[in-house]
Amino acid sequence: MSPSLLPVTPLDLLRVSRHRIPAHGLTPNTSIQNRPLLIYHGAFAPFPGAAGPGASAVESHMSAVGAALPQWRYTMYSRSHFHSTTHEVLCVVAGRARLCFGGEANPGRVQPVVEKGDVMVVPAGVAHRLLEDLNGGFTMVGCYPPGCQWDMCYGHAGEEEKVQGIKGLKWFEKDPVYADEGPALAEE
């Protein structure tokens, strides 16, 4: 393993949640590309007796894999939003939080609790927001495919052309965490 790659939970032990979230109002969610929201539970598992990797180590790992490059460290906005220009990979590097995917009013929404070590592969068009920071300091590393810049959409009138652009976005050629194997590659 390359020195810049972190030890990750072996694929045969990785628990992955797959969520297909229906469109709601002007928010397409997973319907537009038919790619599920993926949550890799404990992908960046802590070493026995250790607190797990920090933001710098996760950023190095993501850069070394190269499928989704780190662009920021932050929590998640508390307002539902989605991106029309890129898929997003969110790596939890501190804390625990309850999130909402799909929009608060959507009966098909998903509200998982995520924690340090979890990774979310969020297809373009999937609304997401922070509902509750459960222990303070919830922080993620936000990553995007090379050359992609994220935008902000809110499911409002006037965003229809942006939403249609999601149809043409390429999916990952490598899994963002596991490279040549991994759950994102099985979603075709």
From TrEMBL:
InterPro entries: Cupin_1, RmlC-like_jellyroll, RmlC_Cupin_sf, UCP019307_cupin, YjiB-like. Coiled coil: none annotated. SUPFAM superfamilies: RmlC-like cupins. Residues 81-128 form the Cupin type-1 domain. It holds the Pfam family Cupin_1. This is RmlC-like cupin domain-containing protein. The lineage of its organism: Eukaryota, Fungi, Dikarya, Ascomycota, Pezizomycotina.
